[in-house]
């Protein structure tokens, strides 16, 4: 699927290095069939529904983790506390509102649609970020949270660029999702989070920088796994 390239933004040399380190994972995400099928409208709506339900569960824990990061910010990063707490609020308002609208729409025909629990991929990812937020160094924890911002921003941008060349997705749900993550409001949040990680990485010692890179790459891999679970409607293997 040929995609129009756009300039990948970073906050500086450190965050650019993170992105370069995760290049192979990002490339696999760009080619993921879940996203490709969203573009051409062939993704079964049941797969998208599965994904949205799991994402709603993920966002709840993501918000809690961001709030914890804000509370744990070192003195030299106290001005970032307000930013992180703002992200936590946005995670349960902007994106959650879109999710809630769809969940309500789907439950209007089947009340069971509002009853769901976390899949193995969701449990793995939320456990990972909450553990980082609670127990790891603040710098490493921030790097672990960055993929959810940056990867979605990247995906939104390149998918939107594709729709500009080839037309919008035939499914309005999918196009709305693309527009959400390609929008200016989400971009502003992403750039702020990049700036936080850039500043944290710039002042970190070599050992912490290495662990920040590892946390970022692992987070990107979990993003791929999340879409894979949606594509396969994979709950638990046993």
Task: Walk me through what this model shows.
- There is one protein chain.
- The longest helix is centred in the middle third of the chain and has 29 residues, at 138-166.
- The chain has helices spanning 13-21, 23-30, 33-40, 45-72, 78-91, 94-107, 120-135, 138-166, 172-182, 184-202, 206-232.
- It contains eleven helices and no strands.
- The radius of gyration is 17 Å and the shape is globular.
- With 238 residues, it is mostly helical.
Put the structure in a nutshell.
The protein is built from eleven helices and no strands. The chain has helices spanning 13-21, 23-30, 33-40, 45-72, 78-91, 94-107, 120-135, 138-166, 172-182, 184-202, 206-232.
């Amino acid at each position: 699927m040929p995609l129009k390239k756009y300039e990948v933004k970073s906050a500086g040399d450190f965050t650019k290095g993170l992105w370069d380190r995760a290049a192979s994972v990002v490339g696999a995400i760009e080619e993921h069939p879940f996203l490709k099928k969203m573009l051409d409208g062939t993704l079964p709506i049941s797969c998208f529904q599965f994904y949205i339900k799991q994402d709603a569960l993920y966002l709840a824990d993501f918000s809690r983790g961001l709030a914890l990061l804000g509370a744990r910010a070192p003195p030299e990063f106290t001005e970032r506390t307000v930013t992180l707490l703002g992200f936590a609020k946005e995670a349960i308002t902007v994106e959650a509102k879109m999710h809630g609208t769809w969940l309500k729409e789907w439950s209007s025909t089947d009340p069971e649609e509002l009853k769901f629990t976390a899949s193995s991929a969701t449990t793995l990812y939320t456990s990972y970020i909450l553990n980082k937020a609670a127990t790891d160094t603040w710098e490493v924890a921030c790097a672990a949270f960055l993929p959810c911002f940056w990867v979605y921003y990247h995906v939104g941008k390149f998918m939107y660029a594709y729709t500009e060349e080839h037309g919008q997705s035939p499914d309005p749900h999918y196009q709305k999702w693309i527009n959400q993550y390609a929008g200016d409001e989400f971009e502003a949040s992403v750039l702020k989070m990049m700036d936080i990680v850039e500043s944290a990485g710039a002042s970190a010692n070599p050992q912490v920088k290495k662990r920040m890179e590892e946390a970022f790459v692992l987070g990107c891999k979990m993003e791929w796994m999340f879409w894979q679970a949606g594509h396969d409607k994979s709950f638990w293997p046993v």
